[in-house]
């Protein structure tokens, strides 16, 4: 599956720099784990992926990266994953389509639809794996985020941050990045407009993505590395 700007926003925005142990749930190609390894230079980054071909692709990407010694791929189910230690930070871009027509491709169905990993089951796994002072960051459609928020407390999680992603000026938010923690505290809320006019990134998005993109079209500026 192609890399999306929304997933890159999660990888570039989630504040993981001080984390020592990071987990990427459902890593796919390994995108979020690679973002985390680049940003948290002292962290061990684990990634788990259920689908064998995706797991193999992620492992190849990890091995080819400058961060290979700090990246570890686990092929398996997050619901039965039993690491020896908990995590300071968890990243996840989960399957979120529910009660919709299933994709005819089994691998795409697994990645996009919540038939094998419901959001309720994901929250239970996050709470089990997250350290008491840790944070988890989930990327969800805005409507799914709104539906999920009231059920956080029953899973022992608190909403601590919410970033609204907006495609371009005048649009309503289409995605939210939820920051969750077992510890209660103040809620920080913000928004990010990704494009001034697609495919030109806004200056705000350009600043966020600059360290990670090899070529970036940003309003009146074009960066090439």
From TrEMBL:
<keyword id="KW-0949">S-adenosyl-L-methionine</keyword>
<dbReference type="InterPro" id="IPR050210">
    <property type="entry name" value="tRNA_Adenine-N(6)_MTase"/>
</dbReference>
<keyword id="KW-0489">Methyltransferase</keyword>
<feature type="domain" description="Methyltransferase small">
    <location>
        <begin position="17"/>
        <end position="101"/>
    </location>
</feature>
<keyword id="KW-0808">Transferase</keyword>
<dbReference type="InterPro" id="IPR029063">
    <property type="entry name" value="SAM-dependent_MTases_sf"/>
</dbReference>
<dbReference type="InterPro" id="IPR002052">
    <property type="entry name" value="DNA_methylase_N6_adenine_CS"/>
</dbReference>
<protein>
    <submittedName>
        <fullName>tRNA1(Val) (Adenine(37)-N6)-methyltransferase</fullName>
    </submittedName>
</protein>
<dbReference type="Pfam" id="PF05175">
    <property type="entry name" value="MTS"/>
</dbReference>
<dbReference type="InterPro" id="IPR007848">
    <property type="entry name" value="Small_mtfrase_dom"/>
</dbReference>
């Amino acid at each position: 599956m192609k890399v999306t700007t929304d997933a890159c926003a999660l990888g570039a925005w989630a504040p993981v720099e001080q984390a020592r142990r990071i987990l990427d749930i459902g890593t796919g190609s390994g995108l979020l784990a690679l973002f985390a390894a680049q940003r948290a230079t002292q962290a061990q980054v684990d990634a788990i992926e259920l689908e064998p071909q995706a797991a193999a692709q992620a492992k190849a990407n990890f091995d080819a990266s400058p961060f290979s010694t700090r990246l570890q791929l686990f092929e398996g189910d997050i619901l039965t994953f039993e690491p020896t230690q908990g995590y300071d930070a968890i990243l996840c871009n989960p399957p979120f389509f529910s009660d919709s027509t299933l994709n005819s491709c089994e691998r795409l169905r697994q990645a996009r639809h919540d038939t094998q990993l419901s959001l309720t089951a994901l929250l239970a796994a996050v709470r089990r794996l997250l350290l008491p002072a840790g944070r988890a960051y989930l990327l969800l459609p805005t409507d799914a985020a709104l539906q999920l928020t009231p059920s956080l407390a029953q899973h022992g999680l608190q909403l601590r941050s919410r970033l609204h992603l907006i495609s371009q000026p005048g649009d309503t938010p289409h995605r939210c990045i939820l920051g969750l923690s077992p510890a209660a505290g103040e809620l920080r809320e913000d928004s990010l407009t990704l494009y001034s006019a697609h495919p030109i990134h806004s200056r705000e998005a350009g600043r966020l993505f600059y360290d990670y993109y090899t070529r970036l079209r940003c309003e009146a500026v074009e960066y090439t590395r």
